[in-house]
Queue: 2 jobs
Job 1
Amino acid sequence: MAVTIYDIARLSGVSIATISRVVNGNPSVSDKTREKVLAVMKEYDYTPNPFARSLQFNSMKMVGISCADIKDDYMARMVSILEKKLHEYGYDYMLLCSGYDLESREHAVDLLLKKKVDALILIGSQFLGNCEKDEVAYLHRDAEQVPVFILNGYLENNNIYGVLGDDRNAMYNATESLIKAGRKKILFLYDSESYSSNQKMAGYEDALRDNGIPVDGNLKLKITCSLHEERDLLLMRKDLEFDAAIATTDELAVGVLKYAKARMLQVPKDISVIGYNNSPLADFVEPELTSVDTSIKDMAHVAVDKMMECLQGKNVEHKTVIESRLVKRCTTDF
Amino acid sequence: MAVTIYDIARLSGVSIATISRVVNGNPSVSDKTREKVLAVMKEYDYTPNPFARSLQFNSMKMVGISCADIKDDYMARMVSILEKKLHEYGYDYMLLCSGYDLESREHAVDLLLKKKVDALILIGSQFLGNCEKDEVAYLHRDAEQVPVFILNGYLENNNIYGVLGDDRNAMYNATESLIKAGRKKILFLYDSESYSSNQKMAGYEDALRDNGIPVDGNLKLKITCSLHEERDLLLMRKDLEFDAAIATTDELAVGVLKYAKARMLQVPKDISVIGYNNSPLADFVEPELTSVDTSIKDMAHVAVDKMMECLQGKNVEHKTVIESRLVKRCTTDF
DNA sequence: CTGAAAGCGCTTACAG
DNA sequence: CTGAAAGCGCTTACAG
């Protein structure tokens, strides 16, 4: 049996109320008493029972984080930074990997809520599905219980907060860089119709249009298969002609490198390639991958800071956009 | 205010004891009462307050997982599988990324314990430091409170359990494959002196010896820097001659590929390379990396299964070894 | 089969 | 500055 507040009270010769006060830093305790109690607490290595505290406060100082898959490097990096930032505020977190379909996402968030977390952080705009009414209904419901922070997505609701990269602009600029470097047929690879994917596609299309290049539907390719299948698919699509590729993730971009290698094409000369997220993978592959950096760190920090303000009852902006920048490496020649 | 057991009792016209019984599946409730209560619970969307339950049971059904860094793909894969397995048993987890030094590891485990987790899972033998007495003292202390499961490490203690890959054998076999393929000067790259790193080194050395090749200390290289620094370091070490490299992680092995590329050496012809962990990275790089697969899945499953037996008071083996296998790709020619 | 009551380990008005 | 007491939302012997 662990030592309880009763033990410490008895051993210090005071009431449990006083023990509670010194534990909680209540100033109305005489120095003498406080020291005595502190000494006893230390001697017996007393830690307040967190379950009892939670019951009182109706909070465990715990936030629920859900992401599709912690194996995804982007999400792992996000969780890693969120953790550090949350700890600064004395908060812990429960992680729940939901997988990629909307139903399991709903389920994951539901589980987290049952644990009475203080707030929710959802990593990835795919929690919004295609943003249709019935698909986001669960989020509106959940937001009645706790504040919900969506990283890379946004949904209008009094208790939902979005922190997003400027995906449209970033993709616009990246695409335009390719165009300015003389590329005319730019493949666009994406893996979902999430909010942020759609933003990226919009940026891509707008850049083409603004530069007088018609958008060719054939050059927009949705890829949901593995790396090698992606390569093979590109190899089979002999009808496709392209001198550059831009992808919504680094992993998809690497598929193009595999394709180039198989066709003995030179990168960046024959095909230029740009990825997204600036993951460590970008350095590992050869040639090293030019990629958009989405400032994961800023995003995570802003989200946690805002969440804390929110939990203190302060008024907080509902939408924050974080700037991205292009990290040039060896798969582009500008 | 959420609906409590008192509300449900009042609305169902029974006592809170009965509500508790149906919530907990106690059979001594009449069908009629049960149905009534269930209906009311459903109508009002009642969920028992987890804090109150925890206080009663002195458990949240929560295990603490600590790893050095969730951004590391190996650890992320491990956590991902642990999560699924834990959920099967109705357990959640708190994750704490400790960083790589021993002091922060102690601290991380301490925090987890303060939260009164039911058990501890530590990913990576580095939690053992160099296995010296004072370095593992904290683990012996922690094990007095909860069962401790070390993935990839082992420490003799009544309440500490190890689930490990057969790192020595795996490295022995991999090294021997290189030798049998005609390689004589095999570089060994490692990044720490952890228990499992040491096992790997032992396997490497034994394979050399058993095949009549003297161990050359110069060919054992500890690398703790970044990918590009590793490459540059190899480029600078003009004294080193090697026709193969074997590494304790895939990341380190990729450094050799970078080196080969810079020196215009052919892989696997001029240099053969073997990595460790069979991470997704092995497929991304070019040429694709031969790597040892350590059966993360088996390891995680065994750990959780054993932990559950342990929590049920059953007697459990303290050490389980999981077999590894070599996945041959394009950086070796056997 | 069911309920009244005690207890899990805390916090916090309230009174002194 | 300090303590007695009520209460947070549950579970579980115990009695009927």
Job 2
Amino acid sequence: MSLSSKSNRKRILIADDEPDVLSLLALNLQRAGFDVLKAEDGEKALNLARTENPSMVVLDLMMPGLSGLEVAKQLKLQPATSRIPVLMLTAKADEVDRIVGLELGADDYVTKPFSPREIVLRVQSVLRRTEPATVVADQLSVGVIQVDRIRHEVRIAGESLDFTATEFKLLTVLMERCGRLQSREVLLNDVWGYESVIDTRTVDTHIRRLREKLGVAADLIETVRGFGYRMVAPSE
Amino acid sequence: MSLSSKSNRKRILIADDEPDVLSLLALNLQRAGFDVLKAEDGEKALNLARTENPSMVVLDLMMPGLSGLEVAKQLKLQPATSRIPVLMLTAKADEVDRIVGLELGADDYVTKPFSPREIVLRVQSVLRRTEPATVVADQLSVGVIQVDRIRHEVRIAGESLDFTATEFKLLTVLMERCGRLQSREVLLNDVWGYESVIDTRTVDTHIRRLREKLGVAADLIETVRGFGYRMVAPSE
DNA sequence: CGAGCTTGTTACGAGATTGTTACAGCTTGG
DNA sequence: CCAAGCTGTAACAATCTCGTAACAAGCTCG
């Protein structure tokens, strides 16, 4: 049932010993477009962080066994994992003071009770802060084309249109790299996924289908003969 | 339901030191149905934002005195204003990189030159995104469907109908988010609860039962292949 | 208890989606 | 202008998705 696309989505590792909290966070993060790795305890979290190279780690401070604090410390110790941002969940506000006193390696923290929405916002903002190169915008717009990735909605000149899963993905990839040439290989990789064994001509077919649906905005997808395709902003 | 004046229109605060830009934006936003507050500099913008409780703030990045960036930071610092969405106007695309590095609190940004129309679209989409049904109405109505949540009553074209608990919940969730796509996962989460371990196909079944009972209004529930379902207002 | 209702699961078929292929038209370089 | 190579287009088959119906388990209420 998943519209899976491992390649260019960010992986978030979350660790909490309460299954409910874990599921809730996972669901909301997935809904916000992240891939999620779940860990029920500190040991598992540490292992996953080392093997799966997540973009970010969300840790519950209080866990049986390895606490979130210890996991964070371990991560900071090794070069391979030392730069992974850490968002710490803490039960009480006054715990934070102690943590800060301990020179916690967390990039941000949230005190319980928190709303899942808040966590998602924090995760996004920490990612934005720590990875200036890749801004993840939910809202894309190029010329008359507007895309809301969260709602999976596309509007052409204000009018809502439906796209299939593949078309949608292809469109958003082109839009977020507007102005830059995308080779068929890159598109195959980022739209269809790493291990796909798909003919490059397939890209052409989907580009055609995209253009057909885009109607007046079809011109925004340029063909660069011999290389691939490029979305262009309309010249004013 | 009300044709009334100021009360239920959204207030947008715009700040720019160029009078021309300010007027142009104000005009277009008013035309789009918003109330507009104008500020010529950062200080005034900050004051208005604190006293007038706007739904959203549009800030020019470069202003004499307090810059848009500083205003945004100030807003984020205080709980009363920290949740107001910020749309930032920037002169050049490469300014954006610097902004991101500076931990911008903006929800979206637009680079100059921009069309007023584009700003209006952005404002609308940011508002759509950041305001997930703040009003909980007892009375819902979409097309010929009318729901009274207190009496637990549903009327289709005036005729009363019985719905089961699940059907009722599903219907109201769809109605309150009329026009917006709901994935099966979201529906499972919001109708069945997040700890439920239920197959996504179950959603399909209940959608079908809903449509069956809705009769003439069945068309109001759209299927968005590959993603989920959406309730639409019949006017479109 | 038991009939009837509610609800989640499952099977299946129609139809949509999608990758492939063939071919025609176009661009490019000589 | 021609030949070679790309790309646009259309058609096709494999696959996937969703609507439909049937079924079984659970629940309610007499």
